[in-house]
Amino acid sequence: MALTMRENPNRDYLPYYQVGTYPGKAGLPRRPIYRRNPKYVSPASMIQTARGKMRAEQEAFQKQLTEQAAATQADIAKQLKIVQEEKSAVAKMQEEYTASLKAEADAKRKAQEEQQLALQTAQRTAQANQMRAGRQANLQIQPAGQISRSAGTQRFKMRGQLPETRRALASGLNIGQSNSLNLG
What we know:
Layout: E1 16-22, E2 31-36, H1 43-133, H2 154-158, H3 164-172
Antiparallel strand pairs: 1-2
């Protein structure tokens, strides 16, 4: 009875399998016929294949880790750049806010100085007014002794005394008494 691969499919671990027997000589038992098992893999080649697979898997895993590390580094660099830009923007905003606070404080200080100066001026004015309040007016009416009597009205009195020749000359030219030309 010959065992074939089909009959013994679970014996792939055997290097050879029996396919039949040789006819024996008289009185001797029959010798089996073995053939090489094409599915057989020796333990050494299995170990070598397993090591090769493991090495390939390790290399693939190492490559994957390297790619992930590079991607992570790129992502970290990108986020760091964003954070630095945000920090610079925040620092810029903080500088602007500090500058505005400083400007506001300067404006308040200047307004207080102006207010203080105005208050001091008002106090000085009030103090001067109080000092003058105690004084009395020193008005005296004096006689018009040495001033000529025609000082204020002398020109009006002279109008009636103009010579006749000047009046006649002026009346023909339509020039008024004030020596100005009337074009109206």
